[in-house]
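Retro notes, item 3 of 5
We never archived the inputs for the 2-OXO-4-methylpentanoic acid complex last cycle. Fixing that now. Sequence and ligand:
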Amino acid sequence: MTLTFTTEPAVPLPAAERAELLASPGFGTVFTDHMISIDWDRDRGWHSARLHPYGPLVLDPSAQVFHYGQEVFEGMKAYRRPDGTVVTFRPYANAARFNRSCARMAMPELPEETFVEALELLAGTDREWVPEQPGCSLYLRPFMIATQHTIGFYGPSAAYRFMVIASPAAAYFTAGPKPLSVWISREHTRAAPGGTGEAKCGGNYAGTLVAQEQARRDGCDQVVWLDPVERRWVEEMGTSNLFFVYGDRLVTPALSGTLLAGVTRDSVLALADELGYRAEEGRVGVEQWRADAESGALTEVFSCGTSSMITPVGSVRSADGGWTIGGGVPGPVTSRLAEEIAGIQYGTRPDPFGWVHKIA
Ligand code: COI
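Structure as it came back at the time:
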């Protein structure tokens, strides 16, 4: 299937106003001049692919997404490199995960080529919005919603809209390179076997807010989820995956079906091996986490995700007390992996895996 995109140009924000916004973009509140929309219905399949001015949507209040939450999304970034080119990172990995989420949520899959073409068109058109400062990027948010007008719940929506919006972004965690403090949720779980935990759908995030707020009230930055059955095995953090560092050995929780298969997680697994560490998927129990941190066998912990990149975790709080990891300061393995992965993305290091995808 080939879709042809039509273009309705926006009146761009004046350059001086754009420069002011780009000087300190924060995360997630500033948006570029354009967006992408593509519609789907049962008769026509995917159609009406368009680049058009960024702006509010007009949707019927009975659109299914508002009532039953049929929605999926992705998160990825475009980076400006020293030679002025703009690239994304492993966009086909995000396209494939997007379609796995669609399949789980009974939504139509979008051809991977169309997904990537939509990103290229938006980031290429709005390339002036890709920040230049180190550590900044243009965050790309592809998402899809159910638009059929009905509050009957007889089956999947008969109509959908896929959209992409773009937002210049600085660091996700505002405290700078300071290691995160995390809080282990014992009362709530994020996902259950057979549920939607592996899909990147909005409902998975909404359900975590109550525990995230509990973590904040206890003075922690982020919540950590345990497995839903034994409430013993570490799964993931509020918005990212976790790695445990034992000297030169790295362990990340295996994909059990209840946690998100992060693209950064997968990249760290590959890159760690390339850099001479031993990286593996496994199980980390919460008691083990504490015992290994206290004995010093566990030298570092870090979180990884698209928005937050690689961030050290320095201290843990749980109902039965707390502990620190490696003295609560960023460790050398975390710092090296963070530098290497950012180097590939920003073009200051070679790209041995061919992960970088040129846009403009
Ligand atoms: C991302 O890291 O890209 C995500 O989708 C997480 C989101 C909560 C910002």
